[in-house]
Design a protein that fits this description.
The chain is mainly α. The chain contains ten helices and no strands. The chain has one domain. Helix content is about 80%, strand content about 0%. The radius of gyration is 17 Å and the shape is globular. The two termini are about 20 Å apart. Mean pLDDT is about 85; it is low at about 255-260.
Length: about 260
């Protein structure tokens, strides 16, 4: 078990706050929070479990904030959650035999096109949903399934892709898409956390204080998103997509994946 010092808290807690802030608006907070635990010297399994604990706390608060403002499409979110569970399981299974290099390379090649779609869609909304209303729930299930597979295979940016799918395919307003994505993320995070807690991969002495900072970051981010609206969400989405592209490119370089 790694030693926890004052410096450990000074490294981890502010980064968890920042990750929670970003994640509550545009997804992708794991790009910041998981490396924070690595910087503190935690081994991967313990870092993953501790990160999930702080993520669940912050995501639950953000989900509640969006829910109280009526900014969750519950039918879409629940249908996606039903798809994300088998999707994540399938993704984790594929990870055991599919070369991860090619998976990450495919995502890297796709990200510029995703960013271009966001740039062209200035208000992050569609006048007419691309998916007809009778097919909305099956489409949500497929969105959850596909993004769940990505989550099991790669991970970072899952919430970002959910937001983009709800906006561009289902015509959800950007803030509602953020809230719906939070609901789906909360379910997947809880599922992963149960496994990691039962296997003893949570460092509570660090994860619990960090969770308080994650809650604060999520609250601030959700409040700002609700106040500033779609342009703010769109700007942060572009930042997260850029960070995700940079991280995946680094992961593709020999010897870099172990450092991140």
């Amino acid at each position: 078990m790694p030693d926890i010092t004052l410096m450990t808290y000074l490294i981890v807690c502010p980064l968890i706050f920042l990750g929670g802030f970003v994640d509550s608006i545009a997804g992708g907070g794991g790009l910041i929070t998981l490396p924070a635990y690595y910087l503190a010297g935690l081994p991967p399994a313990l870092a993953g479990g501790s990160n999930k604990l702080s993520a669940v706390a912050g995501t639950a608060v953000a989900t509640g904030k969006y829910a109280t403002r009526g900014l969750i499409a519950w039918r879409h979110g629940l249908a996606s959650a039903l798809g994300s569970l088998p999707g994540a399981a399938l993704g984790a299974f594929l990870l055991t035999w599919l070369p991860e290099f090619y998976v990450r390379l495919g995502v890297v090649l796709a990200l510029p096109f995703v960013a271009l779609l966001v740039l062209r869609n200035k208000d992050l909304s569609t006048r007419q949903p691309l998916v007809p209303a009778p097919l909305a729930l099956p489409a949500c299930f497929m969105i959850g399934l596909l993004v769940g597979v990505y989550d099991g295979l790669v991970g970072p940016g899952t919430g970002t892709f959910l937001i983009l799918a709800y906006v561009m395919l289902l015509g959800e307003e950007a803030l509602t898409a953020s809230g719906t994505a939070k609901l789906v993320n909360l379910g997947s995070n809880l599922g992963a956390l149960v496994t990691l807690v039962t296997t003893g991969h949570v460092l509570y002495a660090l994860a619990l204080p960090a969770a308080a900072f994650g809650i604060a970051g999520n609250l601030l981010g959700a409040n700002l998103a609700i106040k500033k609206g779609a342009p703010f969400v769109r700007a942060l989405l572009l930042v997260v997509l850029g960070l995700l592209l940079a991280k995946l490119l680094l992961d593709l370089l020999p010897g870099q994946a172990a450092l991140l």
